[in-house]
Write a structure and sequence with these properties.
This protein starts with a strand and ends in a 14-residue tail after the last strand. By secondary structure, the chain is mainly beta. The strands form 6 sheets. It has a 4-stranded antiparallel sheet with strand order 1-24-23-22, with no helix packed on it. The chain has a 4-stranded antiparallel sheet with strand order 2-3-4-5, with no helix packed on it. A 4-stranded antiparallel sheet has the order 6-7-8-9, with no helix packed on it. It has a single domain (2-272), classed as TolB, C-terminal domain (Neuraminidase). The chain has 1 helix and 24 strands. The chain has one helix spanning 256-261; strands at residues 2-5, 12-18, 23-28, 33-38, 44-48, 55-58, 64-67, 72-76, 81-84, 95-102, 108-114, 123-128, 134-141, 144-149, 155-160, 165-172, 177-186, 194-199, 205-209, 214-218, 224-229, 235-241, 244-249, 268-272. A hairpin with a 2-residue loop joins strand 22 (235-241) and strand 23.
Length: 286
């Protein structure tokens, strides 16, 4: 696993492939930045938004759908124009938006993170439609994470990092309905708390084991097939792009001695992908 950008994100997250631009995109949550790495030429570009960014996805129009602290907007990277989409979401003040991804239904699915001192399970999972409707689909999370869909779009995966589990739901791409929630995997301490995720074309689920410095590949039945060590501690999210797996990492909250031992924490890394990634869905804003 090689370092491709020593960007030193506080919390690098939401690693996303923008095929139209040839960029691997990722955000630095607390600093409100979206970074783009050009896979063909190694170019590096950064966009600054007005507040923290939980996650984002790519739109059919070429814009990005972005989950800010408590609202979802559309962002045009060509002119930095921000268009309001959802308005403020109905959730506790201690909850901010966290992991999100565009689903096979063309909508933006985004969960929350409860930042109250008590770490209560108040965070919801939202579905944001292209016309700005916000539908609360599930709740009771501390740190909602790990959204991904099977290659045929019939199964949605989701996790709670603080509770160390990954669930699966039956998914209807025509309506966005989810049902039949069941446990996909209980993640052990050796595998690391489940953070961001990606899906390969064989229907295997790749999860960043953030507390164990690894990427875990689970079979469609939920069995751990392989575990790949990461170059530095605290991987946060993988994505497939141009024959590689790119991985974001974080620095925030890590002790000084760990940062001294691993000064490139917060960087963007990549390794050769042993399998192709499943296609990335686009937000249906056209």
């Amino acid at each position: 696993m090689d370092l491709v950008w020593d960007v030193k994100c506080e919390t690098g997250e939401s690693c996303t492939w923008d095929a139209g631009r040839g960029l691997v995109l990722f955000c630095d949550i607390p600093l409100g930045r979206i970074h783009g790495f050009g896979v063909a030429d190694g170019s590096m570009i950064t966009w600054q938004l007005p507040e923290l960014i939980g996650s984002f996805g790519v739109c059919r129009s070429g814009r990005w759908v972005v989950g800010l602290r408590s609202r979802v907007v559309l962002f045009n990277p060509d002119n930095d124009e921000i268009t309001e989409l959802s308005g403020p979401l109905d959730q506790p003040e201690t909850v901010r938006l966290n992991d999100g991804k565009v689903g096979p239904d063309g909508c933006f699915w985004v969960g929350g993170r409860d930042e109250s001192p008590a770490k209560t399970s108040e965070a919801p999972l939202w579905r944001i439609t292209p016309d700005g409707r916000a539908e609360r689909k599930s709740g009771g999370y501390q740190t909602a994470n790990g959204l991904a869909w099977s290659p045929d779009g019939t199964i949605m995966y989701h996790s709670d990092s603080r509770k160390s589990y990954i669930d699966a739901w039956d998914f209807d791409a025509a309506t966005g309905a989810i049902r039949n929630r069941r446990r996909f995997a209980d993640v052990t301490e050796a595998q690391g708390r489940p953070d961001g995720a990606a899906m390969d074309v064989e229907g295997c689920y790749w999860s960043a084991g953030t507390s164990a410095a690894c990427l875990n590949r689970f079979s469609p039945a939920g069995a751990l097939l392989e575990s790949f060590p990461t170059a530095v501690p605290a991987p946060s999210m993988p994505c497939f792009a141009a024959g590689h797996i790119y991985v974001t990492t974080l620095r925030e909250g890590r002790p000084a001695e760990l940062l001294a031992a691993h000064p490139t924490m917060g960087g963007l890394f990549r390794m050769k992908a042993p399998v192709a990634g499943a296609p990335v869905a686009l937000f249906n804003d056209l």
